[in-house]
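Mods, move this if it's the wrong board.
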Amino acid sequence: MLLLLDNNLIIESMKQPRISLEQWTTLAAVVEAGSFAKAAELLNKSQSAVSYALARMEEQLPTPVLRLEGRRAVLTEVGEVLYRRAQQLLDLALDVEQTAQSLAQGWATRLTLAIDAIVPQQPVLAAIARFNQLAPQTRIVLLETTLSGTDEALLERRADLAISPSTPPGFHAHQIGEVQIIAVAHPNHPLARAKHPLTEQELRKTRQIVIRDSGQRRTQNQGWLEAEQRLTVSHFATAIQAIESGLGFAFVPIDFVQKPIERGELVRLHVPDRSERRFPLHLVTATAADPSPALSTLMKTLETSFTLLS
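Not the wrong board. Structure tokens:
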């Protein structure tokens, strides 16, 4: 239907469904209970009210959705299709109500989690999967950062929470795990064929693959040995591919290369001074006060996930 406004602008009026949620609920109750009488008990209504609601529904539909087989109400072929769609509609309506209730209780609609490049992804993704079950109304944004970029995300309030080996001034953190960094190379690389423990001087003469600092204000070169040659990439996945291509060596988290090492695709280098480098992983927040319900739940799922990993 078209509406004429005072300024002569013609717009189309909003279409409204002719069948109410209550009627679809009544249909679902009849199907699940198997009869009008049992559906009336389920809905705490009279049988005549149930019959009237469905009669009005079928007046709005081009074809019947129910047929009677004795005393049992059975879906027609069309009714089966509409019943499945009605179930989706009712689930969505309940989800809207639950979302409204959660928001009224202070649940955030969106949380941004910054994760440093050295953080293993498996426990993070497992925690997010669990969080989505507990708080489907809250969206999670993963911000993948490196070195000072993680601190900047917190300082600039672009992240609500971070997993990082460092904690910027004024923030609060507690350790949830640790990561071991090892040196690796391709099996055919000269460093991999060395029969003696490698020195940093030998490493400096070889091309090192390093991860670019994602920070804009200041840059860090943690793990870089000031090699004469280097290849800078943005992600460990790219670094590992470069190592597998024989382009150089790199220091990477052991979790990222454990399987390639087991398959013989990469070799762990024996560097005495750096073979047992371990970094703590902290859960970093802006305040030590009680976090919001959504943030508190995400923190707990992350803590649980990293605990199971250790």
